[in-house]
Predict the 3D structure of the following.
Amino acid sequence: MPDNSRVLWHSCGRENEVVIELPHIRLAGRIWGDDNKPLLIALHGWLDNANSFEPLSKYLDDYQLLAVDWPGHGFSQHRPGHYPLHWIDYLYDLEHLIETIAAVKPIYAVIGHSLGGIVASAYSAAFADKVPYWIFIEALSPLVEDPTKSRQRLTRSFQDHGRGLRSEGRLSRNVSLDSAVAARHRLTGLDMQWCRLLIERNLEVTENGARWRSDPRLKLDSPMRLTFEHVQGLMRDHQGEVLLISGKDGYRLTSEVSERVQSWYHNLTRVELEGDHHLHMGNSEQVATEIKGFLTSKVIEKGQQT
């Protein structure tokens, strides 16, 4: 491991594997590329993990790519206690991650997929200048919900968590890797090879079988979502340099909502590619080409301006 990286993370014995000690929690991750290359931080989606960026890493060879496991995912530590989880918690994780790394090595760009893009979009709305470039895959803002559903959501969340605590022992029972991969494929339609890549990191394999590493609270309903007005107030006049990569068969907003959300950004580049919600896995070469093209073009633009 290169010298200055030892200050940021330490190897845990597996290939490309690192551990990052933040002030409040321990994160695991995977890293590809030499330390003398510009650093990209990658943030995965809900119930995924750092392995989701392995296909992309093969084509981003001009950079060093650090993909972290969010708390409760992959090899990262779970949040303490039994309280319901909320996506806003990840904003604090990202803040500490950026502050910890940037104190030693500049961060060139943040890549966020799905949940990772949601968190990065909200964070960059307030702190766009902390990272030069922001790349969002299949996400552009936090999710919104009509305020009339707030009471129902809160009630359902607490009921779900009550049942979850009572069934915690059953959630930790042994499972079959093959059956878990097949179940993820049936549920999401994601190709089997990518399901296996993700599931392998979210499972702990023992002599007696496999058990989920993932925090079981991740599958339970969150207690609150923001309204459109809340999100608009946060995201409007976004000053960051942003690339949005969407899949033609990915998550779709209505055209009216999509136009309003995109209008919040001052410096937004939009690209639509072949692929589904996980196009950074299934179409990784083209996604990497767009990322490299975007970053290169911004360097050229800044050179011309100076």
In short: The CA atoms of residues 106 and 286 lie 26 Å apart.
